[in-house]
Amino acid sequence: MSKIIVFSKEAFEGRTAEFKNDVRNLEDKGFNDVICSIKVIGAPWVAYYDKNFAGNQRVFEEGEYATLDDKGKFSSLRIVTDDLDNPEIQLFQHPDYQGRSVTLRKETNLHDIAFSDVVSSHKVTGGVWVLYENTNRKGSQFISFPGDEVPSYVPLSFNNVASHVRPLLPKP
Q: Which segments constitute the Beta/gamma crystallin 'Greek key' domain (predicted)?
């Protein structure tokens, strides 16, 4: 069974809690803005800076994270239960799905295809995708789920900054 174990201090120390389902408000569980290390077993999880799966976000795949760059900032957690097979995302140069577009099915450094720092909207037709502000999976992240149609990144503070994208992959 998939779960996430959170700790109030780095290196898996301090108070701890285990979750197997989405948590819309970590304040209700006594863990709002205090998570400093994480262990993930099974399916990936998305941690959000704000309650109700809003604000900045970061994906955590199976593994142990003894130190977090954004420790003490998470307010909600969402387990990824979507089908990760057959990933596909269509990126658009302008808001409202206008301008040049490219359809991707695998991890791509957008610099390599002359599409970096121009993406302003997208549609996900398969899989769960992570869009990164910088190349090599660095910087801010935006996680998008199957069926998501995001007509503008302006409200997300992610406009024209996506430089790298990758689908979450199913376990072998």
A: 2-42, 43-81, 87-126
